[in-house]
Amino acid sequence: MNLLYGPQNWVSTGIAPNSRLIPRHPPNRLPAAMIRCGLILALLVAGCAPTPDERCCQDVETALRNGELAAALQLVDHCRQQNPTALEPRRLRVIVLLRLDDLEQVAAALRTLPADDPVLRTALRRREPAVRIGAARLLADQP
């Protein structure tokens, strides 16, 4: 006697009782849902991971905060070698050079950026006084 469906003579499906078309037990959907949730979570985590350029820029910012200017300059040059077309490492190079108060190299670094790049205007809002002063001097000298 089948407790779920009643005696087999009560089920009038027209299909043999040992057929594979009628499941004897309802399917367990929990493992499939867990797999779907796991895949969605993995995609979200992978999408939130920083790119190599972002990670490098974070390292440069950390070196700047710690006052390690030579290390910051080496890191930003390494980032530029890894991805020469990226703008953010070139902008950070301007910031590091402003902090080092090397305005000649800053002018050379600015020539590698687009003409309307806002790096000097954003440098005016940074915490470091040397960066703000150098950016103000360069902006005052521009025509």
Task: Describe this structure in a few short sentences.
The protein has about 140 residues and is mainly α. The protein has helices spanning about 30-50, 50-65, 70-80, 85-100, 105-110, 120-125, 130-140.
Written account of the structure:
The mean pLDDT is 78. The chain has seven helices and no strands. The longest helix has 19 residues. With 143 residues, it is mainly alpha-helical.
Task: Give the overall shape.
Answer: elongated
Radius of gyration: 32 Å
Beta-strand fraction estimate: under 5%
Output the helix-strand order: HHHHHHH
Low-confidence stretches: none
Mean pLDDT: 78
Helix share, percent: 55-70%
User: What is the rounded distance between the termini?
Assistant: 96 Å
DSSP strand count: 0
Task: Note the main sheet.
Answer: none
Tally of DSSP helical segments = 7
Overall structural class, as computed from helix and strand content, comes to mainly alpha
